[in-house]
Specification:
Distance between the termini: 9 Å
Oligomer: single chain
Protein name: Histidine phosphatase superfamily
Keywords: Membrane, Signal, Transmembrane, Transmembrane helix
Family: Belongs to the histidine acid phosphatase family.
CATH superfamily of one domain: Phosphoglycerate mutase-like
Number of helices: 16
InterPro entries: His_Pase_clade-2, His_PPase_superfam, Histidine_acid_phosphatase
Organism: Neohortaea acidophila
Length: about 500
């Protein structure tokens, strides 16, 4: 949910951001996508709802019309329009049912069933075999190492596995800003107890410490329930404050300008973007080269990338919690409409990258918006310049990650010496230097442990309470159909 000032900014930009595909050719796309609407975290395990399924499916339809279809407005050069070529498509998500199912729902729309006539094959003995579900196309969703179970956990850094990143986030809890807010909002959260006690919150846990869990619970309830007990307490001003406090808390856990290791999710994402698009360039547009990649993940990676890429220099609305089914897109293109082949593939000096963001489900009515990156006014970056700027904060190799995070066991054992040295700089896969500062002040040493989690430990009795309070009325059985008609992806409280 972006701030009103961001909304005003967007209204002023369409003429500047207008794109035309007639004079250019898109070479490759990398996308990071948030999951669709889900059940609340306080009643884990979470599940994708029918609305959430519809949101990601609708997003897949939009991006098919933008990049894949024969008549796509920004069709990726050489990509298969109807029958999926698995060498051209990469999809990934953590081991998490909401994120994996969101990825599957998105892919169903990106490459829909092939239909009658293309859904059969004749075996050697003459038998004709018809594929299930009108030629439903199966696209693998690979797993990424970090983020497993993230939609069942309230602690933003719980699945990062990065020691110094977790340590840095914990440092927020000893700041005067945190403690002042904790104290000044105590009465505000206590007044919400008639509503949130049904989710297991009590006088000791209804505080700013659990701002996100409280927001998330009420957000889901307001989306899915026609009536809410004690809803008179949720005035527009209160709703705005609930969201604002949760956004403030989560932003400070996801990013800190002086301790960029806190944004490790955005740092690793930055490297993944560069590595995928670089492989597309290296393949010179061959049919076996990757052309479109989509990774599903949680809102924290949006926030950390926004901070690292200095999008907050445009508007502080980027410090908010991004909506369900939001997407970030990096489009790599060249300024020519002539067919691109391996023999005339453009050199890197003629290849550019732009960044787009959709706060909620992308549609024709609400398409992603192009934004400048890195605190500049530039809308497009020449490839080498883009790589250089991304590598200033990206973490792209295991050794670099271990060194920056200070991890010394498991996969990091071979790099224990460099990790222990506190060095934060390494070399990325393409030989460029890059890194992430990892200085942590001594103050945090006294709070690691007790303050490592924001989660409220909720008993099973909360499930029974839910029946009488904020009840989510539908959970997604992913392949049971397209689900109920969704809205525009706005996950508003």
């Amino acid at each position: 949910m972006l701030s009103l000032s961001t909304t005003a900014l967007l209204a002023a930009l369409p003429a500047v951001l207008a794109q035309t595909s007639s004079s250019e050719t898109v070479l490759g796309v990398y996308m990071f996508h948030r999951h669709g609407d889900r059940t609340p975290k306080v009643f884990a395990p979470t599940n994708l709802t029918d609305l959430g399924y519809r949101e990601v499916y609708t997003s897949g339809q939009y991006y098919r019309s933008r990049y894949i279809d024969d008549t796509a407005t920004f069709r990726i050069e050489g990509i298969s329009p109807d029958m999926v070529n698995e060498n051209q498509i990469q999809a990934s998500a953590p081991v998490d049912n909401v994120l994996q199912n969101s990825a599957a729902g998105f892919l169903q729309a990106l490459y829909p069933p092939v239909g009658a006539g293309a859904d059969t094959e004749t075996l050697g003995n003459g038998t004709v075999v018809t594929a299930p579900m009108n030629g439903f196309q199966l696209i693998p969703v690979n797993t990424v190492e970090s983020g497993s179970g993230s939609e069942n956990d309230a602690w933003l850094q719980s699945t990062s596995s990065c020691y110094k990143s977790e340590l840095s986030s914990n440092e927020y809890f000893v700041t005067s800003a945190y403690n002042d807010t904790l104290s000044s909002t105590r009465e505000f959260y206590q007044k919400l107890l008639p509503i949130i006690s049904q989710a297991g919150f009590n006088a000791s846990t209804a505080t700013f410490d659990n701002a996100y869990l409280i927001f998330d619970y009420l957000n889901v309830g307001r989306i899915h329930n026609a009536t809410i007990p004690h809803s008179n307490l949720l005035t527009p001003e209160v709703v705005t404050q609930i969201y604002g406090l949760a956004a403030t808390q989560q932003w400070n856990l996801a990013y800190n300008a002086s301790e960029t290791i806190r944004a490790v999710g955005g740092a690793t994402l930055g490297s993944q973007v560069v590595q995928f698009l670089n492989a597309t360039v290296a393949s010179a547009g061959s049919l076996t080269g990757g052309k479109f990649a989509v990774q599903f993940g949680a809102y924290g990676s949006f926030s950390s990338f926004f901070g690292l890429a200095d999008l907050i220099a445009i508007n502080d609305g980027f410090t908010g919690i991004t909506n369900y089914a939001s997407s970030m897109v990096w489009e790599m293109f060249t300024n020519t409409s002539a067919p691109v082949t391996a023999s005339n593939y453009p050199s890197t000096k003629d290849i550019y990258v732009r960044f787009l963001y959709s706060n909620g489900t992308a549609t024709d009515a609400t398409p992603p918006i192009q934004y400048p990156l890195f605190g500049t006014n530039q809308m497009e970056f020449q490839w080498d310049d883009f790589v250089s700027r991304m590598n200033r904060f990206s973490i792209g190799t295991t050794g670099q990650w271990c060194s920056a995070c200070g991890n010394t066991t498991g996969i990091c054992e071979p790099y224990a010496d460099s990790a222990g040295s506190g060095s934060s700089s390494s070399t990325t896969d393409d030989g460029r230097s890059g890194g992430c500062s990892n200085g942590i002040s001594p103050a945090v040493n006294g709070v690691i442990g007790a303050m490592v989690t924001l989660a409220v430990v909720l008993g099973l009795e909360g499930l029974a309470m839910l029946v009488f309070g904020l009840r989510v009325v539908s959970k997604k059985r992913l392949r049971g159909g397209n689900g109920a008609a969704g809205g525009n992806g706005e996950a508003k409280l």
